[in-house]
Amino acid sequence: MTTLPDYNAMSDAEFRQTVRAFVETNYPDIPRYSLSRLHWDEVKPWYMVLSENGWICPTWPRDHGGMGLNAGKHLILIEEFERYGAARVNDIGPVMLGPLLLKHGTEAQKAHFLPRILSGEDVWAQGYSEPGAGSDLAAVRCEAVLDGGEWVINGQKTWCTLGMDANWIFILARTDKTVKKQAGISFLLVPMDARGVTIRNIENLELEAEFCEVFFDDVRVPADHIVGRINDGWSVAKALLGHERVFIGAPRLSAAALSRLKRIAQHSGIWDDPVFRDRYVALQCDVLDLSDLFETYVDRLRDGREIGADVAMLKIFQSELYQRISELMMQVAEEDAGLRHAPEDVRQLHAAATYLSARPTTIFGGSTEIMRNVLAKAVLDLPA
Amino acid sequence: MDASMNEDWQDNARMIVESARAVVPADGALSRVRKARFNGLGFDPKVMQQAAELGWPLMWIGEEAGGLGLGLRETCALMEVLGRGLVPEPVLSTMMAGALLQEALPETVMTGEAVILTAWQDATGALTWQGGAEAGHLTGPKVNLRGAAGADLFAIVTGAGLAIVPRSAEGLTIETAETLDGGTMDRLHMTGVAADFLPCTQVDTVLQDATLAHSAYLLGLADRALEITLDYLRVRKQFDRPIGSFQALQHRATEMKIQLELTRAAIAATARRFDTGADVATRAAGAARCKLRAADLAMLVSREAVQMHGAMGITDEADIGLFVRKAMTEANLFGSPRQQRRLLATRLDQEEAA
Ligand SMILES: Cc1cc2nc3c(=O)[nH]c(=O)nc-3n(C[C@H](O)[C@H](O)[C@H](O)COP(=O)(O)OP(=O)(O)OC[C@H]3O[C@@H](n4cnc5c(N)ncnc54)[C@H](O)[C@@H]3O)c2cc1C
Q1: So what's the ipTM on this one?
Q2: Which of A137, B30, B175, B211 could form a disulfide with B334 if both were Cys (CB 3.0 to 4.6 A apart)?
Q3: Is the CB of B243 within 6 Å of ligand 1?
Q4: Number of residue pairs across A and B with CB atoms under 8 Å?
Q5: What is the mean pLDDT of each run of 10 residues along chain A (384 residues)?
């Protein structure tokens, strides 16, 4: 692997220029500004470009093949990619599993799995949720039993984002039924092509197969396909990287939606309407104030300070703001709000696409209700 | 209004709701509706035939002209049931044609041999209908029809009067776009289409009736979506409890119920006023108020329904998604909430002056 420059040593402006030039030069001939996720066969060229340049895992340490970016630089990278409308790659490996292995994996696991994520050889899916275990994730029932040096897995996972593209899945499996729910869960790694794994695609509200169910029927994997200790999977899974918990509340989705709202209003001739402006300005202030709040968390990350449960405020406000902007878009789109596809010339101004893509943001990654419960207890210290 | 009249409308409403069972299964099953999506028309022509057999196109034709002569209370009762069942057939558009044409409604429409749809709107985001005629011909656009490819005839509303033209008329082209609910939204382009214009003084009244009727459809949609969601809150368990036991969700379910009952009351009272001789100003304001709240209601309930269903609500498999996409498609027809508020705002000064 070629050695990358020390990006953290660059000035922010210089790094921003570097990223901008990179994406403009290297972005392949695939869709930009897509509101729905692209599948692996479409987005792979971009993954490979990032991979070949050592840019696929921005937060991983440099000696593990990452860019070693600090929070501030990582944010700039994200911002510039989004500005260009670069598609989001299948990033569960780079974003979730990689950091998790770096923290909890054995040397053998790191040596085996990390390079395969970096090269794009392995594409990962996340198998936490089950039909009966959503908000109450600790209720997982998918079971794994040790038998002759192998885990034998039976059960079901669901809502696996882009699971149909993955060749590996990490799951939370029940390995002890006799103890408190959280204490009997293990974190296992399963190849999707193992005998006994079947998947069924699920169409989402946009009529796209973006997630799937995964069934395990006497699936056998070697005993060492476990991360962390047996029955310690809950704490392994909980340790999501600090960056990600902050960045999920970044104002960019809302900011982008706001600029689309503006263009819809201009397109339909109501941009000067004072009634519209009253509502637009209120939303604009929300976006700006969210940005300021967000920056305080980025500062904390930069200074290496702890991020507490209060970070949930960012995600709650961001996702609900995104939804409120999309609701106004639907109103100002008038009868066109009902169109399945926007006319070619104003494709990006499709109100319904934003409205629909905003729906799941208050459900995945901890629903708004669950996050409010957490805030009420952990931050406001209110009684149970 | 005497008591017997009151009972009359209730009996009629009961009968017409009963007859709707032929189209809307009592158990709320949506398999027919699901199947009719994205089939090019977005609805089932056989059901339009059924609707004609049930006399629905004659709803708003006076009895003396061979129609049913029913009022808005009966219509809203029917539309609410159609909304609950997400019925995709353009029944309302046909009723409008009947109301506008009265005894001039073609025989073939009455028998169900032909489908007639009403084309009135001049432009998206506006409620004007006076365009479309020039020098004794039809010229210009008519927008936001639904299911135009399934029509044999169009009743074209213009400032110069009403024209009946066949879909195949020379100079008439149809631009079709798919809608979220699996139907279509269509634009008629007319260039010098030959037509006889029938005089028509009823357009505003019929549009107000239709706006109110469409509000009742949205009310039915929201009512059923809330029912489905409440059922889900009762059966879905997390943390060893029904999720409906969590107060965070209970309070929001309650808010939906309040909005629903406000809408229901507004529509019932407005329909009664329409049926008992309200003046033009009262009608216009009433239709606007109902449409405004019903559209907001349908969007609110369908949105909350998704959230309360969790990831299940994001799937196309779960029926609740059909309600979301239908609400998104229908909420802004006959004037979005924005348009209705604007209409009501312009009336403030008139009220002041009066
Ligand atoms: C687009 C999308 C992608 C996803 N991708 C993945 C993936 O890749 N891998 C994976 O494992 N999972 C994935 N998920 C699943 C996601 O993690 C779950 O949807 C989430 O945990 C919620 O669980 P649920 O859907 O079962 O809803 P439920 O837990 O059944 O919740 C239903 C409703 O009840 C509310 N509720 C629940 N408990 C409470 C409470 N105590 N107080 C108040 N309200 C409550 C919820 O907030 C919600 O509104 C994805 C989901 C979506 C929508």
Answers
A1: 0.95
A2: B211
A3: yes
A4: 119
A5: 84 97 97 91 98 96 94 91 94 94 96 98 98 97 97 98 98 97 97 98 96 98 97 88 80 92 91 96 97 93 88 96 97 94 74 95 94 96 93
